[in-house]
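FAQ

Q: What does a record look like?
A: Structure on top, sequence underneath. For example:
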């Protein structure tokens, strides 16, 4: 049945909700034919077109609904392949293994993805099967969301927009010709020095569901919401932009323990329905807070890096820079459109 004839019309540019993921991937591949392609026989396996000489390659993956995370970073040249799942759902083992084999260039594959249960299970199984085919795999999981678990349970934290810094550093290490082991170590170093926190003003609407995955009352917001709509730490009255930054930045600083004079990269990420102007209002206050703490913002990234369909909200990520990381972040800033 055509969308216009359905009893309940979603305010979305879609056809049949069941086809949404694959049609979106159709459009992505058609839009960037010189950068990405599908692996023959596996429409959910997206890989880059750039020739891969004898070097380390990078694979990622996750559920749909988060562009440019995950597949968009193949088009941007930061990763070599992506396994795509259904909306907010892990990709299958078969797709992950297909991506791994398609991008392998003889020096091993780095898996870099968010710390979610289904992804962990399927990526670990794919790594085991890849090893049987002689492909060495090392795995890193972004777990940067400080509000999703306390420090003593940091291994269970969710990955959110801070994974972008991991992609940047991993891609830079590969370009520099580093081995799989060294690429993994420097990327792990970046992830260990990255922390994020976010807030939501509305839920996401999955096309197949047709209703928000959570609902906030008028004048209410939630602190700590996950990018799949996972519950945050608290709900309360809508805060001003400055008040939101004042609540999100201190826990990041507390964990990173940056001394006066340190340098940071800042990422203010929109979750899908937040205008750029609002993100810059948030960044303004973040910059003020860091300056007040005598921390220098070396690079700022403001925009959509990890979304959740049309969720209104934002996250803030800080990367504590050092001499090992600064060059990678500078290069990423210079390459922005």
């Amino acid at each position: 049945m055509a969308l216009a004839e359905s009893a309940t019309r979603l305010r979305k540019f879609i056809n049949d909700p069941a086809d949404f993921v694959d049609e979106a991937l159709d459009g992505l591949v058609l839009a960037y034919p010189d950068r990405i392609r599908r692996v023959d026989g596996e429409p959910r396996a997206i890989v880059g077109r750039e020739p891969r000489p004898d070097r380390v390659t990078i694979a990622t993956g996750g559920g749909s609904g988060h562009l440019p995370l995950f597949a968009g970073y193949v088009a941007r040249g930061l990763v070599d392949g992506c396994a795509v799942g259904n909306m907010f759902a892990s990709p299958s083992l078969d797709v992950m293994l297909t991506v791994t084999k398609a991008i392998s260039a003889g020096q091993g594959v780095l898996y870099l993805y968010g710390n979610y249960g289904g992804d962990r299970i399927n990526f670990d199984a794919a790594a085991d099967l890849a090893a049987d085919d002689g492909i060495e795999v090392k795995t890193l999981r972004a777990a940067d969301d400080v509000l999703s678990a306390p420090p003593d349970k940091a291994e269970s934290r969710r990955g959110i927009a801070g994974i972008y810094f991991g992609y940047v550093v991993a891609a830079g290490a590969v370009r520099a010709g580093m081995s799989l082991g060294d690429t993994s170590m420097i990327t792990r170093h970046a992830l260990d020095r990255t922390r994020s926190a976010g807030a939501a003003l509305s839920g996401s609407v999955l096309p197949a569901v047709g209703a928000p995955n959570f609902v906030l009352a008028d004048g209410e917001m939630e602190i700590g919401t996950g990018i799949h709509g996972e519950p945050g730490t608290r709900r309360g009255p809508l805060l001003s932009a400055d008040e939101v930054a004042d609540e999100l930045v201190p826990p990041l600083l507390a964990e990173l323990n940056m001394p006066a004079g340190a340098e940071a990269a800042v990422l203010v990420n929109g979750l899908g329905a937040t205008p750029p102007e609002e993100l810059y209002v948030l960044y303004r206050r973040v910059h003020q807070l860091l300056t007040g703490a005598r921390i220098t913002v070396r690079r700022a990234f403001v925009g959509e890096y990890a979304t959740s369909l049309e969720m209104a909200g934002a996250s803030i990520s800080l990367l504590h820079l050092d001499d090992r990381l600064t060059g990678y972040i500078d290069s990423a800033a210079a390459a922005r459109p």
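Q: Is there anything notable about this one?
A: Confidence is low (pLDDT under 50) at residues 1-7.
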